[in-house]
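Lecture notes, unit on protein representations.

Consider one protein chain, 242 amino acids long.
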Amino acid sequence: MKKLFPLLCLLAGFSQSAIAADITGLNLLSTEQFKLLSEDFGSALSYKPVTPAEPLGITGFDIGVEVTSTDISKSSTALATASGGSTPITTLIIPKLHVAKGLPFGIDVAAFIASVPTTNIKLVGGELRVALLRGGIAYPAIALRGAMTSLSGVDQLAFSTKSLDLSISKGFLMFTPYAGVGQVWVDSKANVAGTDGALSESFTQSKVFAGANLNLGLTNFALEADKTGGASSYSFKFGFRW
């Protein structure tokens, strides 16, 4: 697991070599460009559960390395301008280390850390999930999740998200498909001189997602497709779940 996370970072770095090491030129963006960048970052950096709705249980853990790929073509030029990249990219790839723990009463907590290669983007996030229906042989699990993420590393940008979603899943032997809907609240503000607060955005984005979890004993795989706002994301997680 410790060796796999650096490998994901390395692979992501090769795919994003057009981005400069640091995002330090937000003052070069117009108001419209900053808005587009904030919207795509809201899609890319908001919380991705990559897990079924059913609770882990008091002894349960879900530990995995994860990678999320998001279409940022809408703001690719703005990001290239802000980062000094020679060529705009259309996909932002974020490797993560994700850990979830089951608690009593159908409650799960989870958190992740992420660092985007070739940029100064660092991200942390967490969730609290409550099983409204724990699921069984004849009926699905339903869960309510509250989550948040916070950007660090980019001194010029104060960026955070909060989200609320409702998800449903139903297991069939080792295979558990799931889906959900929700809302994301995004706060984005540039901390640069001379903008007079013009580069500041607060907005909401709708969210829909669907995925599947495959558990082979301890070894676990999960795939998820997400559309938050106008951008699509795809996540893959490999790890251990019990």
